[in-house]
Amino acid sequence: MNGCMDRGATLIEVERHLMQPALYRIGEGWHANVVSVAQEHLATAIVQSLMAAGLSRSMPADDNDRRVLLACVAGNHHSVGLQMVSDAFHLSGWHVQFLGANVPERALLQQVIAFKPDLVGMSVTLESQLPALKRFLALLTERLGDARPPVMIGGMAINTVGAAVLRQVGADATAVDASAVVGAATALVDGVAT
Ligand code: B12
Question: Is the pTM of this model over 0.85?
Answer without folding.
Answer: yes
